[in-house]
Amino acid sequence: MPSVLPDGETVPEDGALPPHALEGAGERPLGFYLHVPYCATRCGYCDFNTYTASELRGTGGVLASRDNYADQVAEEVRLARKVLGDDPRPVRTVFVGGGTPTLLAAGDLVRMLGAIRDEFGLADGAEVTTEANPESVDPAYLAELRAGGFNRISFGMQSARQHVLKVLDRTHTPGRPEACVAEARAAGFDHVNLDLIYGTPGESDDDWRASLDAAIGAGPDHVSAYALIVEEGTQLARRIRRGEVPMTDDDVHADRYLITEEVLSGAGFEWYEVSNWATSEAGRCLHNELYWRGADWWGAGPGAHSHVGGVRWWNVKHPGAYAAALAAGRTPGAGRELLSEEDRRVERILLELRLRDGCPLDLLRPAGLAAAGKALADGLLDPVPYGAGRAVLTLRGRLLADAVVRDLVD
Q: Which residues form the Radical SAM core domain (predicted)?
């Protein structure tokens, strides 16, 4: 969740949606994203809407305290129930992200989930995920989450090498994420993800292979691997600018991606989105698939984004402002936009092309179709699904996914 919010039109004080937003809602899945904006320390590469205790001191008072945050999120869930009215859909996925959700007591996360269950109900087999910092959980904490209804957990591993973690300002010790996977399995979690980052300054190919091997050896059924993006304004960007650490180039990122595909596929993982691999269809992250396929979700928390029926909105960024809005009986929404049919077409191409089954060719305009034909000839699109009317990236196409998307949209 980026820290900079877009501009947009004003959200009504009661958060009401235009009537068309719920037309055909019964045909779309509904998910919830719950943002926990608190972190013990700020990682040097992070540009998310998160806050440490020192950053909040004097800016939010009691309103921005972690102690009552679960109550604030529950209040926004009740607001969602009012806004969505008699929408009969049970919630298909819940994802608690951050920040570091596990800085809150396990009981707080369970209470936030309970508010969704009380107001909307959970669909049979609903996926309920939380992100977790490896150093902020223990077996008792994980057991309480599992007993409270969480069935999927995502640990931030990033790397198995200490010197790489140090550059990223990650505070966990190597080996702890792998131990967390075993603890989560013992607690009864059905699905476990490890997040990895490649391309950190000072990381070698051998370092990256060691991280992949360690992640696989821990026994998760899902791995996410992302290229490091150096965001302006972060501590890492300042260190690179001062020449303290080198910048990793695109060729290195490409090499690391090829290593990732080689190692993970060799261990029984299959890619289903450019940066995500799972050992089975059941292991895929259903919540992220809601995003990628343009379904409906409500994002609760400071800076959280939502989308329902072509209406997208986002909350105020600061935890104090968020709490104050809810305490006054107002929506915390800071702005919104109504997506046109063209907006939605373009977004479908942007998101669906990154998926294993790609996007329909009939989404493309003539210029995009011409670009698709060139991408096919260049080996960037798979000829078999292309013949069946779908644009699906090859491995080489995945390396150049952003460029291919731009060409097909244009």
A: 24-270
DSSP 3-state of 369: helix
pTM: 0.93
CA distance 376 to 379: 5
CB atoms within 10 A of CB 40: 12
For 27-82, the pLDDT digits (tens) are 999 999 999 999 766 565 555 666 766 567 544 544 667 889 999 999 999 999 99
What residue ranges of the chain have pLDDT lower than 50? 1-2, 58-59, 61-62
Q: What single DSSP character describes residue 225? A: E
- Partnered with residue 31 across adjacent β-strands are 93, 297
Q: Which two tokens stand for residue 185?
A: 């399995």
Q: How far apart are CA 250 and CA 89, in angstroms?
A: 43
In this structure, the strands spanning 311-315 and 122-132 are unpaired
What lies within 8 Å, CB to CB, of 19 at 6+ separation is: none
Query: Two tokens at 90?
Result: 């049970």
Beta bridge partners of 129: 95, 152
DSSP result, 42-111: --TT--BS-B-HHHHTTTSGGGG-GGGHHHHHHHHHHHHHHHHTT--PPEEEEEEEES-GGGS-HHHHHH
* Helix (H) or strand (E) segment spanning residue 297: strand 296-300
Cross-strand pairs, 226: 197
Alpha carbon 400 to its chain's center: 21
